[in-house]
């Protein structure tokens, strides 16, 4: 048995370090970008990958002056080894956590379409109960967050879910997030007495410049479907990936928008906007996502349980 192990170690075509470098190049589609992230020069990481290919006897990447692309063999190695690396990284974190080798840390990812006003509810109760646990926060597009949770680079993500969740992930909590239309304070809204005339207001809104969340994100797709359903067929003058920026632009008279109610409170003292309520409200679902089949630390379970919405 020992002879077999020594022979395996001597002939192994790559180690975990090289496998991680291979994954970096595959994800970034660039030796230069992967090298920068790994702290290596472009030539150094190229030599590492070339050595893997020579020992395997297989070409892993197609290289041109314009791009780096996985070959069929490279795609197979990437797919099969992805779960392995996630499991190894997860095991290392468990060892560090359970034997107190590093401070307890929760890595939280939040979708870019979730505004700053949400953060106190996400963290406040947990911070009071577990002041010694560190929180690392990342704000990324939902697709990136799901990949990072699946690859064990994040512990938990809060986002608007896609139609189909990756098989290695699960949803633990769901929340409804209601929206309202906002307009600049100087926009004159049609009224019947003291009430806003919704029919005339709807026609007025059609003539305004719209500032919208990116229609390619999960929230944006659902929002544009809802607007069309309510005969508000708009072509946005501007699309952004952040509702905090959108509220500020509306308050400056740049246009009108549809934003979450929860984004507004932190701006009312500084940025004035008008809220317009329609008969049918738009609402999105926000979810908490974690990995399946992974023993969760007690403080991570408590973090998820203490999210307030």
Automatic annotation (TrEMBL):
Q: Keyword check for Nuclease, yes or no.
A: no
Q: Which UniProt keywords apply?
A: DNA-binding, Transcription, Transcription regulation
Looking at the record, the residues that make up the HTH lysR-type domain are 14-71
Q: Name one Pfam family in it.
A: HTH_1
Single Gene Ontology MF annotation: DNA-binding transcription factor activity
Q: Does the keyword Lyase apply?
A: no
| GO CC annotation terms, alphabetical | cytosol
The record ties this protein, via InterPro entries, to: HTH-type_LysR_regulators (IPR050950), LysR_HTH_N (IPR000847), LysR_subst-bd (IPR005119), WH-like_DNA-bd_sf (IPR036388), WH_DNA-bd_sf (IPR036390)
| Family according to the record | Belongs to the LysR transcriptional regulatory family.
PANTHER family in alphabetical order: HTH-TYPE TRANSCRIPTIONAL REGULATOR YBHD (PTHR30419)
Q: What is this protein called?
A: Transcriptional regulator, LysR family
The scientific name of the source species is Pedosphaera parvula (strain Ellin514)
């Amino acid at each position: 048995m020992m002879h077999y192990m020594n022979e395996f170690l001597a002939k192994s075509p790559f180690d975990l370090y090289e496998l991680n470098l291979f994954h970096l190049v595959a994800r970034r589609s660039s030796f230069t970008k992967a090298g920068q992230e790994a702290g290596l020069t472009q030539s150094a990481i190229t030599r590492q990958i070339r050595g893997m290919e020579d020992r395997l006897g297989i070409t892993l990447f197609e290289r041109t002056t314009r791009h780096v692309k996985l070959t069929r063999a490279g795609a197979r190695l990437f797919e099969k080894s992805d779960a392995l690396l996630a499991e190894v990284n997860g095991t290392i974190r468990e060892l560090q956590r359970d034997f107190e080798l590093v401070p307890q840390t929760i890595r939280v990812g939040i979708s870019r379409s979730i505004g700053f006003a949400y953060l106190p509810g996400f963290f406040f109760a947990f911070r009071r109960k577990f002041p010694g646990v560190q929180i690392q926060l990342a704000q990324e597009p939902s697709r990136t967050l799901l990949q990072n949770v699946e690859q064990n680079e994040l512990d938990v993500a809060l986002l608007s879910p896609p139609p189909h969740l990756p098989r290695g992930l699960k949803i633990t909590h769901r929340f409804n997030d209601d929206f309202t239309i906002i307009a600049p304070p100087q926009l004159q809204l049609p009224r019947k007495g003291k009430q806003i005339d919704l029919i005339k207001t709807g026609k007025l809104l059609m003539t305004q410049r719209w500032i919208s969340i990116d229609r390619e994100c999960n929230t944006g797709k659902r929002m544009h479907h809802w607007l069309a359903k309510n005969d508000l067929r708009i072509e946005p003058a501007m699309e952004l990936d952040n509702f905090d920026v959108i509220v500020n632009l509306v308050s400056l008279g740049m246009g009108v928008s549809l934003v979450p109610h929860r984004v507004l409170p932190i701006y009312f003292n500084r940025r004035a906007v008008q809220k317009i309520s329609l008969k049918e409200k738009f609402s999105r679902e926000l979810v908490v996502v974690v990995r399946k089949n992974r023993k969760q630390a007690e403080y991570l379970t408590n973090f998820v349980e203490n999210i307030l919405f």
